[in-house]
Amino acid sequence: MKVFGMIVFCMATTLADAGAAVYPGMAPIRQYETASRTEEIALARSAAPAAISGHAQILSLGKQGYETAVAGQNGFVCLVARSWDQGFDNREFWNPKIRAPECFNAAGARSVLPHYLERTRWVLAGHSVARMRALATAARAAGRGMKPQPGSICYMMSRRGYLNDTVAGPWYPHVMTFALGVEPGAWGANLTDSPVAADDTNYKPVTIFMVVVPAWSDGTVKRYGSGLLAAAADVHHRPTRRRRARTRA
Question: Residue 239's pLDDT is what?
């Protein structure tokens, strides 16, 4: 079997080549919008099983940031993330095709999600990447960097997402958790045949741990077979590029 542990955070192509961006600038805002709020709500709900997302708060992308489209009752918050939820140096930072359904539990919604929502407001305000990088650096220096609360998790189990051009679709159904200052090896992540993958670069010093699950949110079984590790490695295992991966601000 190939090494599963080198799989990177599927939302971002963290092992992207260094060099010129594939998408050098922001596209017209309409390209990042969904055809209708109804469609955006449905896509956001697909991030987690209906027992969770059916009672979650749903956020929809508006003109100045995310807005509440549906009030929730269980503390979970679901939304469709766009391309700027990744490192500033990522070649797909402005990829208008990206739609990443995510559903955070209450702890994650309080302590992880706000950083993406703030960045979205920067994007829609017209800030350049350089300006956003400076704002993020200043926030960390002021002690306002991401500090995940214990138990923060995020479901990414939608079969309808488009996470980057490398996978050109939804990748694998998985659940993420977040830890501050934890090495991947402490969880046995990024080791040969480990079922746990980790990204300790994009949100440094936060480590994102990812556990692949057996089915999509609609209950459809994802049949991996013996080729799961090989297939995952074929898409994401780029050891020579990993050394070039940039830290997310």
Answer: 30
Full-model pTM: 0.83
Q: Give the model confidence (pLDDT) of 4-45 as tens digits.
A: 333 333 333 343 444 456 899 999 999 999 999 999 999 999
Q: Are 67 and 59 in contact (CB under 8 A)?
A: yes
User: Which residue in 215, 207, 214 sits closest to 14, CA to CA?
Assistant: 207
DSSP the chain: ---GGG---TTS-TTPPSSS-SS-SPPPGGGGS-S-HHHHHHHHHTTS-HHHHTTSEEEEE-SSSEEEEE--SSS-EEEEE-TTSS-TT-TTTT-TT-BEEEEE-HHHHHHTHHHHHHHHHHHHTT--HHHHHHHHHHHHHTT-S--PPTT-EEEE--SS-B--TTTTS----EEEEEEET--GGGGTTTSTT-SEEEEEEEETTEEEEEEE-SB-TTS-B---GGGHHHHHHHHH--HHHHTTPPPP-
For the chain, the structural domain boundaries read 4-242
Assign residue 196 a region (left: φ > 0; alpha: ψ between -120 and 50; beta: otherwise): beta
Pairing of strands 57-61, 77-81: parallel
Nearest in space to 45 (alpha carbons), one of 63, 70, 64: 70
Q: Which residues pair with 210 in a beta bridge?
A: 176, 197
- Residue 93: per-residue pLDDT: 95
CA distances to 96, 121, 201, 208, 232 from 187, rounded to whole Å, are 34, 34, 16, 11, 19
Residues of the chain with pLDDT under 50: 1-19, 226-249
